[in-house]
Write a structure and sequence with these properties.
Layout: H1 3-10, H2 14-41, H3 47-58, H4 65-85, H5 89-96, H6 98-110, H7 118-125, E1 129-132, E2 135-138
Antiparallel strand pairs: 1-2
Helix pairs in contact: 2-3, 2-4, 4-7
Length: about 140
C-alpha cells in the first residue's frame, strides 16, 4: 500500500495531507537513512526506543509531519503483514483510522491539525493494538 492510498482509505483530513505533501520530498530522500528505525518502530520490543531515535534524527519538525510521515510509512509497510496473516482489511482500516481520529481530536482541542500522538500510534503500527468495530484490543 502506498501512502496516498492510505490517506484516502482512512479519510485523513486534507490539512494533514497537505502537511504530509509538504515534507514528502525530503522524507522520500531520507528513507534509506531512516529504514532501520522504521523497522524497529514496527516491532513491539523496540518501538518506543525507535520512536525516540526518530524524534532526535528528524530534528525540527513543525507540526510533527515528518514523524507522521514515518508512522504512516510503517502503516503502509505493516499492511502486508495484515494480508499475510489473514487479518481482514476492515480491521486494518479501523485500526489505522486512529491517525484520522487523533488529527480531528487535536484540531478540536488545540484549534489546529498536527501530529501529537506518536507515542501512542506505535502500538497500531507494531500490530500490538487492533481496533475491531468500536473496541480496541492490545496484546
Amino acid at each position: 500500500m502506498q501512502q496516498q492510498e492510505l490517506y484516502e482509505v482512512i479519510g485523513l483530513p486534507e490539512e494533514m495531507v497537505a502537511g504530509l505533501c509538504r515534507v514528502a520530498p525530503e522524507m522520500e530522500k531520507r528513507m534509506p537513512e531512516l529504514d532501520s528505525d522504521l523497522n524497529k518502530l514496527m516491532d513491539r520490543a523496540t518501538m518506543e526506543k525507535a520512536n525516540g531515535n526518530l524524534i532526535t534524527i528528524l530534528g525540527e519538525d513543525e507540526g510533527n509531519f515528518k514523524m507522521l510521515y514515518c508512522h504512516l510509512e510503517c502503516a503502509c509497510r505493516i499492511h502486508e503483514k495484515y494480508v499475510q496473516t489473514g487479518i481482514p482489511e476492515q480491521i486494518f482500516v479501523d485500526t489505522m483510522g486512529c491517525f484520522t481520529r487523533f488529527a480531528k481530536e487535536c484540531n478540536v482541542r488545540n484549534g489546529g491539525f498536527y501530529f501529537d500522538r506518536g507515542f501512542w500510534t506505535c502500538r497500531q503500527i507494531s500490530m500490538s493494538l487492533f481496533r475491531i468495530g468500536t473496541l480496541e484490543y492490545e496484546f
